[in-house]
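Risk register update: the risk of archive-format incompatibility is retired. Evidence:
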Amino acid sequence: MLIKLENPGFLSKIIEIISELVTEVRIKVNDSGLSITAIDPANISMVRFVLPKSSFSQFETGDEVLGINLDNLKRILKRSGPSSSLILEKKENLLNIQISDRIKRNFNLSLIDIEGEEKDLPALEFSSVIEINSRDLSDSIEDCLVVADACSFIINNGKFIIEARGLNSAMSEFSGDEAKISAENCKSRYSLEYLQKFIKGAKLAEKVILKFANDHPLRMDIKNELIELSFLLAPRVETED
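Archived output:
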C-alpha cells in the first residue's frame, strides 16, 4: 500500500476531530479510497469519514485495514504544513508516514490490533431534513453552550429552531429564507458536548445537512469536493426542567 496526498491539512483536522470521539480506529484503504467508521465508547455517537480515491495524487493499494492509535497519528499529521505532501505506506506491521516540503521527514507508526465488530452507519428514516449554512449552525450551537449542556432541534410550522433552556435560555430560528427546510413538526434533544465536537467538522464545508425526527437520532452530513464526513448522535430523552 502506498498512497499520496497533497496539502494534507484537512486530513489532519479531521483526524483531530475524530480523535475527540474515539482513541483507536480501523482505517480501511481499498480501491474506493480511505475510510473510517467508529462508535464512541459511550455508544452515544458514531462517525463515518470517507476520502475518495480521486482525492489522492497517487494511489496504489489492495484491500488494507490499518489499526491506528489516533492520538499518535494526529501528532504526526500536525507536523505537516500548507505546502506539504503526505505519503502513507504500509510496511509489515508499521505505517510509514513521509512528509515532504522543504525537506523530507519520515515517521513510523506501529499498527495495532483492534477488537470489535465492524459496523456501518445504520439506515434510518428521518422526518426532517435541513440544509443550513455551517457558520449559522456553529454560531447557534455556541450560543446554546452559554446557557445549557443540551439543546433541542425543533420543527414548528415550517421553521427550524435550535433552543437551549436551563436557568437561562438561548434560541435561533431559521425560516426558508435562511435554510432549506423539508420537514414536519417534531422535536428532539441532543448533547451539546457532542455537537460542539461535530461543528468543528462542519467548518470544512459551506453547508451542512441535518436529518432528525421526533426523539430520534440526529445525522449530520458534511461534504466538500475532497471529503465526506457524517456524524450520528443519539437523542437525550428526558424531562426538561
